[in-house]
Design goal:
The protein is an alpha+beta fold and 137 residues long. It has a single domain, classed as Jelly Rolls. The protein is 36% helix and 28% strand. The strands form 2 sheets. The chain has a 4-stranded antiparallel beta sheet. Strands 2-7-4-5 form a 4-stranded antiparallel beta sheet, with no helix packed on it. Strand 4 and strand 5 form a beta hairpin. Helix 4 crosses helix 5. The protein starts with a helix and ends with a helix.
Length: 137
């Protein structure tokens, strides 16, 4: 099942896109639901997808340290896709039931090519998150 345009409209990552573009983005994504306590991604694991939190909350941890909470409209997974290593730099655990829009790596290439402004938002978020992680260590 794919996300709807309405689900993607409130996502800051996609704020620069119009309805036809959101329809195209939705066609590149799949919906996924997880329960509270589920590990959404694991630190050190290969990362081949971008995740957008459409509903619910999650927590980002590095080792045993809580880094940040995530809420509706936020995303994760960009560092593994854009950061060069292809590995997850943190774990993300659902803290409530969640609905995710998931874009696999091959579709992410299309996203980067066709929507460079939105892809730049991801790159900037990655730079900020990496800088914050370096400062915290």
């Amino acid at each position: 099942m794919r996300p709807t345009v309405e689900q993607l409209e409130g996502v800051p990552l996609f704020a620069s896109l119009d309805k036809p573009q959101l329809e195209a983005i939705a066609s590149l994504m799949e919906l996924r639901e997880d329960m509270a306590g589920d590990r959404l991604v694991g630190e050190g694991a290969p990362g081949h997808a971008l995740f957008v939190l459409l509903e619910g909350t999650a927590a980002v941890t590095v080792g045993e340290h809580l880094r940040q909470p995530l809420g509706q409209g936020e995303f994760f997974g960009e560092i593994a896709l854009l950061g060069g290593t292809g590995l997850r730099t943190a774990s993300v655990i659902a803290t409530s039931p969640v609905t995710l829009a998931v874009m696999n790596g091959s579709d992410f290439v299309v996203f980067e090519r066709d929507w460079p402004a939105a892809a730049e938002v991801l790159r900037e978020a990655m730079r900020e998150r990496l800088a914050r992680a370096q400062a915290d260590s």
